[in-house]
Amino acid sequence: MSNNNEANKIAEFTAPGMNEESAKNTIATLDNRMVALLDLQLTLKHIHWNVVGANFIGVHEMLDPQVEVIRAMTDTIAERIATLGGVPVGTPKSIVDRRSWHDYSLGKGLVKDHLVALDKVYNGINGDHRSAIGKLSELDPVSEDMLISQLADLEQFQWFVRAHLESSTGKLSS
């Protein structure tokens, strides 16, 4: 397998029964999800440190458990990349260079403002996880299953965020 650049390095082996092309495509898909989750865990900590106003403590305390679960997800993805012969790269500059979205734009802000913005972040993360699951269904059922499990937690975390934004009639405030 070729070693064009750091993010695309692949060992001369992969999981038994998987061909080189499938491994390469699976690694690329997982790398995208790893970068997204690394970015998400940092964004969640940023919000945790900068959220203010009514219901501050509930939101502040809601975010740390999400960070811990997402850190574990990131580790699982990185280890799967390595298992398939890839090199998981998680340095700060490499994360910024490989992401395709804009940085989280709010600094210190009210609970509602941060939660509305975080709901949009989860829309992107969860939608992209679903797309990755679709790609992986053709490439690697083990990685597909891993992301399906993660998506269940990610969607629950988004529900936690939306519960703060939802009216009694089920409408989300924006």
Automatic annotation (TrEMBL):
Domain Ferritin/DPS: 28-166
CDD domains hit by this protein: DPS (cd01043)
Recorded superkingdom: Bacteria
GO molecular function: ferric iron binding; oxidoreductase activity, acting on metal ions
SUPFAM superfamilies: Ferritin-like
InterPro entries, per database record: DPS_DNA-bd (IPR002177), DPS_DNA-bd_CS (IPR023188), Ferritin-like (IPR012347), Ferritin-like_SF (IPR009078), Ferritin_DPS_dom (IPR008331)
NCBIfam families noted in UniProt: PRK09448.1 (NF006975)
Family to which the UniProt record says this protein belongs: Belongs to the Dps family.
Protein name: DNA starvation/stationary phase protection protein Dps
Species of provenance: Pseudoalteromonas prydzensis
Gene name of the record: dps
